[in-house]
Amino acid sequence: MERAFKTADLEKSPQARGVLMRETLIETALDVIHDLGYRSATTIEFSRRAGVSRGALLHHFPTRSDIIIAAMEKLLREATLEIRQVADRVACEEISLEEFVDFLWMMFSGRFFYISLEFINEARTDPDLRSRMIPVVQDFDTALDGICSEFEKRDNDRPRSTHVALKLTVCLVRGMGVQTVLKDDPEYFQSLLTAWKTILPQLVRGQTPNLEQRLRDSND
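Above: the chain's sequence. Below: its structure in token form.
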């Protein structure tokens, strides 16, 4: 996908054009990482797809690392905002458990997750990328915890089992998301989601024998 500037963009104020160009370059970087992978995502390709000169790119992002980090932060920041919005809907009881599972699957089986995998894989051997990713990822995980907390408020009798059940849901869809890289079988994944939607309410409501007691024992 190319995000070249349009004539109307040139009519904006210099400051507005600068902000727009920066955002265009970041979005373009995310597109390139998604399409070509982290290692093949070059600044030359960023500027080509964005329709700007290499000098303009370097003005905003002097190094490849600068634009890569900005792209990663934008990706996770927007995902965090989306999750917090879902948490608000949970608090208003607009979101059911089944809808929550569908939301997570959409998030962890699409563009967001595939780009995230590129960053995670590189962070394993890139200390600088890893150190800059950690605080942003922690904020993302905190947002996920916020959804768990909202569900727990609706089930005060068994808050610990609710929290664990929802964490298991996140781990499930993350693992399934990784599988989609090599397994193109939508029916298979839907069958797993359908099964989990049947199991999850039982876990949340404490209908699994001894679950709450085992969780308490594990913390002793």
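DSSP finds eleven helices and no strands in the chain.
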